[in-house]
Amino acid sequence: MKNIRPLRAFLNYVAPLSALLALAAMLTSVLMADEKPKEPKAKPTFDDAAKVFIGEIRKLIAVDRDGAIKAYIEGARKLAKDYPDEVGPQAMLLEAASISEEPKIQKDILAGLVALKGEKFAPIVKRAEGLLKKAEALGKPVAIAFKALDGRQVDLSKMKGKVVLIDFWATWCGPCIAELPSVKETYAKLHSKGFEIIGISLDDDDEKLKSFVAKEKMTWPQYFDGKRGDNKVAKEYGISSIPTMWLVDKNGNLVDMNARAGLTKKVEKYLAEGTTP
Prior knowledge:
Layout: H1 4-34, H2 46-61, H3 65-82, H4 87-99, H5 103-114, H6 122-137, E1 145-147, E2 153-155, E3 163-169, H7 174-190, E4 195-201, H8 206-215, E5 222-223, H9 232-236, E6 244-248, E7 254-256, H10 263-272
Parallel strand pairs: 3-4, 4-5
Antiparallel strand pairs: 1-2, 3-6, 6-7
């Protein structure tokens, strides 16, 4: 009987405590019932998300260009994932691929864009196909064959043993005209040693082109289809800006996609190299 009094004291303490806990639970339930459920935060539109993103990139590019390019690529990928049915994110990815300096990343992005389905993505798919072909072209033969503006038949595959400059240009392109003296000088110096040029003109007026070529004594063949930015060869190889100059070595392989810089020395270098069987 000695243990009854402490036990009773304990029960007298527990009973009111249980009641308080029950009351607290009831009040919590009532308060939660009165509280309106929070609505999920609305997803911003792509346009709004893109504006915020571009603003961040602009701030970054001023202090860290390489970091900005990397951030743009990562951000474009995220936007494309978050807004898979929008054309905008895919266009941003296309731009990301064009500015990437990492071939693996570039090819990975382009491969994804080429796989897009739907008519609304068709222009992006077409452009991505050209850029992917361009990205994969280095070190490989370039298949270009056409009837030139002056009637000559041109087939790059039959020009092995020569170093060939493929010059994507136009008479309306100021930077292209600025490069012309250098191109003509290199041609005059090295043509007799095996240097050739193929012009891919993005002009839309054949008479103007003929007049300009004659005036400037540009004796090499010119591809012309009058489609300007939709030039078949330029689109096929993902050329997005001109002047663009490619060099093909004696084996017929594309070895330089930026031949403008130090053109003469580059041509001399490849002329000095032999051909493989």
